[in-house]
Amino acid sequence: MEVSSVGVSGIVIIVGSALFLCAANTPISFRVFAPGRSASSKLEAIRGSPTAWSVTQILFGLGALVTVIGIGVLAYALRRQPSAWLIWASVAVLILAAVLWLWHLYGRTVDPVAFAEGRWPRWPLLAYFMLTETGLAILGYALLRGDLAMWIGWMLIGSMVLLFVLTLIFRDMPPLMFYLVTLVAGIALLSR
Description:
The chain is mainly α and 192 residues long. The chain has helices spanning 5-24, 27-33, 39-48, 50-77, 84-110, 112-116, 123-144, 150-170, 176-191. Helix 1 (5-24) runs antiparallel to helix 4 (50-77), helix 1 (5-24) packs antiparallel against helix 9 and helix 2 packs antiparallel against helix 3.
């Protein structure tokens, strides 16, 4: 069975999403990011498993980057469609978001005390959330204008609008929500 270029993009998006979701579901992530954790308990978990913490941050970063690469592969695969420029715009916004995410990951890896105590700047993380939501919504809009199943586009737009509103309300967002959505989109692209 031959996999189309769109199917290849689906595979890459699935791999990126899976890497991110694996990082989010590691024991160290549960110990650090569980609701209501104090700064001292977060720091104790990080100091108790520094290698696991570093590896998890690498997986978070790789997951985000590989997912964006997958969307870039999709843009290339659909380059002859009129909406291809929108997918490239989505990729550009998602690259900017990924840079902010990597900066945040770097900071919480090299200075876990500042991270645990909430002294690491919050704006890069909030910008990452909002840019990711915007980039994936743009991707959804582009997919509505193409030949792919319309439900993929509506799922991306609807979920990202909801997550954007929740980000504005709570000034926070578990980023794994983005990668649950991209996992579904990747599976849909692969099975197309």
